[in-house]
Sequence to fold (273 residues):
Amino acid sequence: MNSTCFSLRCWRGLAICFALVATAGCLSPVHVRSARTLQPGEYEVGGHISGARAMLGAVNWYNGTQDLTKKDATAANYGNPLEITARRGLVPNVDVGVRLGIGSALVGAEGTWRFMQSDFGTAGKLHLATGVQVGQSLLDQIHGGRAVVPLIATWDGLPFSLTLAGHFGYRWVSQPAMSPTSLPEVIPDTRWAMGENGMTGGGGLMVDWHDETTTLGLAFEVDHWAGAIGAAGRSLSDYGVNVLQLSLVGGFRFGLEEAEADRTRDAIDDLGK
Fold:
């Protein structure tokens, strides 16, 4: 193998890696945490890496001269190299956080409210939570975002927990419309997979191991939204997009002892007034 061929293969490999990174933002997982919330003043820094597969439903449309059909297909596999999260407990059962996607330039904010916690003794604890997640990708290739409301149920039997979750919300996509006169294979897979503005929903399952400071987990998620294509003056033809995601999740918590010490000092100061 000569050096020129080797260089070309290296550059092609780098281009593929960049494409995987660049397309990760629109496939960011929703469910990468349990329904447990941080205590007031406690912090958690964590992250997750994910892999995703987008599957597209069949679509029939009119291109101006004839009816065309695009069959069911797997658009592509995507890799999300790293998303970093940081959260802080505000008041009992409420925490807030931010999310940053490396490579996809995803910027997000989220808040979680645990509205129920039941203790079943040695059998474990049940946590129920909801909240909101808002995110926006700043990359031109995948410019768009989402606002979703998750509903999370966690059965916490230390040191392992099982979490079932669902979500619904809205996605917006800042991309040019897909031209109905283009052949399906000419339109990039990423453009098909991103779909159009509209409602989204899905669910997830996560198993995690945790102690007082550390969480490690594996999460699986299914997401659904829709796309559309059609000629001017005719009804758009819709197709469904289903995305399967698998994530490795980790987090480290700190600051609780300092927060509790501050609350103790404040309580002592109040008694002395």
Q: What stands out?
A: The two ends are 82 Å apart (CA to CA). The longest helix spans residues 3-22. Confidence is low (pLDDT under 50) at residues 3-25. The chain has three helices and twelve strands.
